[in-house]
Design brief:
The structure holds two protein chains of two kinds.
Chain A lengths: L2 E6 L17 H4 L2 H15 L6 E7 L8 H8 L3 H4 L18 E7 L13 H4 L7 H7 L20 H4 L5 E8 L2 E12 L14 E10 L5 E2 L4 H10 L9 E7 L7 H17 L3 E7 L2 E5 L4 H7 L16 H16 L6 E2 L18 H12 L4 E9 L7 E11 L7 E6 L2 E2 L11 E7 L2 H10 L21 H19 L23 E4 L23 E6 L2 E6 L10 E8 L23 E5 L1 E7 L2 E6 L5 E5 L7 E4 L1
Parallel strand pairs in A: 2-9, 11-12, 14-16
Antiparallel strand pairs in A: 1-6, 2-3, 3-8, 4-5, 4-8, 5-6, 6-7, 9-10, 12-13, 13-16, 14-15, 17-25, 18-19, 19-24, 20-23, 20-25, 21-24, 22-23
Helix pairs in contact in A: 2-9, 9-11
Chain B lengths: L1 E3 L1 E3 L1 H16 L17 E3 L5 E3 L6 H12 L11 H10 L1 H4 L24 H4 L5 H10 L16 H7 L2 H4 L2 H11 E2 L4 E2 L11 H11 L10 H5 L12
Antiparallel strand pairs in B: 1-4, 2-3, 5-6
Helix pairs in contact in B: 1-3, 2-6
Classes of the chains: A alpha+beta, B mainly alpha.
Chain lengths: ~650, ~240
Amino acid sequence: MGEWKFRPYQEGEIKVDPIENQFFTTNEVGNISNAIVREGIQNALDETVDGVAEIRIFLSGAKYEVDSQKAVGFLERLTNHIEAKGSGILDAPDFDLGMKFLVFEDFNTNGLEGDPEESKDKDTQRKDVKHNFFWFWRNVGRSGKSDEKLGRWGLGKTVFPASSKINTFWGLTIRKNDPEHQYLMGQSILRSHNIEDNQQDYGFTPYGFYGNYKTSNFASPVEEKQDIEYFKETFKLQRGKRSGLSVIIPYVNEEISFERLIYSAVEQYFFPIVTGNLKVLIQHEDNEISLTKETIRQAINDFDFVTLKNDDSLRIKSKESFVKLFDLADYIQSLKDDDYVYLKEPSKNGSPAWLKALFDQTVFTELQNKFEIGERISFKVPLKFHPKFQEPEIRWFKAFIEKDADLEKPENHFIRKGITITGINSLKSSGARGVILVDDEKLSTMIGDAENPAHTEIQKDSRNFKDKYVDGDKCLSFIVKTLQKLFDELQKPAQGMEKDLLSDFFFIPEKEQEAEVVKADDDSENNDNNVPDIHGKKPLLKAIKTNGGFKIIKNPGADSATDKRFEVKMGYRTSRGNPIKKWNPIDFKVNENPIKIDFSGLSIINAVDNGIEFNINHNNFVLDVKGFDTNRDLIIKF
Amino acid sequence: MNYIVKQFNDDGIAIFQQFLRRAKFDSDNSDFPRDMLFEPRFTESLDEEYYISDVTFQSKHDAGRYFEEVFELSSNKALYYNQKLWSWLSAFYFDQICPVDGGGKRKVGQEARYILQTPKDYQTYYRHLLSGPSRIYSELNEKGRIFLTGELSKRGDLIEQLQAYQNIAMNKGIIEAADALYWDEEGNKLKKGAGSKGPGTPRRFVSVIGQFEFTYDLNSMQGENILTLFPNEFRRWIA
């Protein structure tokens, strides 16, 4: 069995507390479920053997928690560090209770390759062998991942301890090229601390390791079959003899839920799932949901969105939106090269910019018509790729855009080699869904260099990106603007007036009512169609248009309005903005000519500018306001 | 001397963009090198041959009329949107659209003033200092005069107010109404006070037009008919 050990500080050694958790704060990743799904799957996609990565996420829940006696064996010599003053663990779990845990396993991947014992620079810098084991276990903030891989910061793995109440995790790996061996290690990330029963002159370093200690400070992985099988059984691993990595998170953060994991996996990785490059199995106690090319639609159909209804961070708000997204992904997969509209290739020597020269106007006139009637449009977009000290070249990425009238907010999906970068929102116009797909190796490299450690944003000042590319910042700006620029270009030029420009404005709030008083053709009063049907409780007041104004009376059949106070506001309807807010004193003032106010059965409390405040004395009341310009529509709101 | 009109290629546009960005902060290097205007690496020929000269424009109206004559824009409307051409012309006449001030410095403005933007982005598209006046002149001839007063390098409040709205900028009836309200026929200039704020001014004109849009099909109305709709605040402007 392995043991936990923290290395004591040496005399004169600078004490440094870990800061990597700050890269996975709520601001960065939305929530911890998102982060663990994102990082875990990303690591697997990096190391997939034949194009299809398989993931299993298992939440023990209470049913399969590890009982406290068994748990103690795995935490020996760790708990006193966790409970030490200054360890950074402010809310340690009760170790006398069971240990709920999470397992994150990837299959069909290479596992952590390389010599588990290596640590010397001369060994780790050799180009002819892999060093993944070394990079994963023995480095923070440094990465051995090459440019085309998704991870570059060496910080992604930090999300595993961040998901544990004791900032701890284990990892068990079997390597594709070494299937006979299994390697188990663990890591606990605390702060510089000291413990009472083993006081050190200079305290302990923050990083503790679980393993076999052949020397005093170097943890080797546990390899003993019996120990490993016991570990696998305890934590319900399904590793068997298959290659890959299993990560075990003890005392898992309670924010991580079955529903959240499902939503995060689909939201962030729908594309590789739909295209058959990724399979995800999510289990909670005895419940499980499989996310594959064949099952993802059914899974979302069965998914209870109500459980997440108060979560504002959901980027995709409904099953219907997911289904449309899957349809779009299917459609993208079915496209051939000549199905795309190619933008015109710019000069390699210019700065990337959305110039008119990119668009073939003849083609776009036709596209506008197609887009107008709801067709999806697919583009290949050229972008300069110019690493410093190399020749520039034009590379291409893909963009897809479609109308969806059901979308109250635009839906943006920026996918780089399977991973969705959630913080990039190009489309600003509602009623549209857009996807940017970067599958070109070189562009993927460039964008990846600009990503933050959490892979949620691209940043021109990112340390891996800055000063690496000519016009790098303009390249990022260009790619971020893509969907909105294409959307703008697909808009048909306005044909006269937009009759429904303010259609969204005419809603009936629960306690307010608006009536449009249109230009009267005659003097007759019209009691019909002035108040839209409202289901439920009848509004107390009713507006009736008159020539050059309106009357407000009690709504027949509504409750008594006596002794209630109301305010009515007015403004001329305008093609831009809210008529009430856009009111200008030059338009009219209710207390000045030509506006006239007559009333009975009520008391006017205040009548100034564009508002009249009144108190109703009895139900047979009338407020009659006239003198408005009959060439303009009047909007009233109360 | 006459020059054959060229247009920038993509590299030329990029070079001009870079020049503008630099000139914004380095007024000692804000003369666009003339020889680059005819340098094959940065320019290309138009489908037809047009010639221009180093004419000095007294006003936007002058420029609009000149380019209408050179390119016959009213029958060559595709040229309205030719970014490469108008950007090249901006570079050619750069001394006029971005003149050196009394202190010997140029005040380089927003890029859209020199490099024509996409027409879809109408809020910046119309800002091009040469293409804007030319298009107005070509579409409206003398009726567009209220837009075309003043120096080429300066934008007036009136043009900003009226032209920022696509539905006003090219609606002949509305322009006729604005012309009737704000143009002083006798003095051949804008009426005094047309640049101010308050009742009946161009700012209000824009607001009230926005209100009429829901009650009248302004696209089908003549200027004189639109004028009859205006409320009393506009009385003092109607001669």
